[in-house]
Amino acid sequence: MQFYRAMQHDAADIASLALQLWPHASYDELLDELDFDDPMQSYILARVDLEAIGFCHVALRFDYVEGTSSSPVAYLEGIFVVPQWRNQKVAAGLIEQATRFGREQGCTELASDTELSNTESQAFHEALGFKEANRIVCYTKRI
């Protein structure tokens, strides 16, 4: 199993994996959002042989991140492992690489979020050493 910082030639694999994480988006939209030249973010890819089996996207956030005390914070924007490779330490390897990216950028904290109803993701985060910082309900009103 290999973990590495993805490059432009990996864009199709990242977009395909991201589409499984965010099925409400379109493949083309996800592909267009990828920016491999931005030093403030990284896409990390997991492969077995030539097969892309997981990815994560980590970016630096300079605004306040719930529960943190430093800035910038390395923020896990998304992580996905194909179902047949789950529970085989793929996500742990991706988080290790995201952590390395954050440290290289001077960060001392890695943060993330998930929906209140996504208990599977909550269990995943806790299993990898994340601590819950807060729970919120967000509201909007058209004006």
Polypeptide structure, described:
The chain has 143 residues and is of the alpha+beta class. The protein has a single domain, classed as Gcn5-related N-acetyltransferase (GNAT) (Aminopeptidase), CATH 3.40.630.30. Helix content is 29%, strand content 24%. The protein has four helices and five strands; from the N terminus they run E-H-H-E-E-E-H-E-H. It has helices at residues 11-21, 27-33, 90-104, 119-127, and strands at residues 2-5, 41-48, 51-61, 73-81, 110-111. Strands 1-2-3-4-5 form a five-stranded mixed β-sheet. Helix 1 (11-21) crosses helix 2. It is globular and about 45 Å long. The termini are far apart. The mean pLDDT is 94.
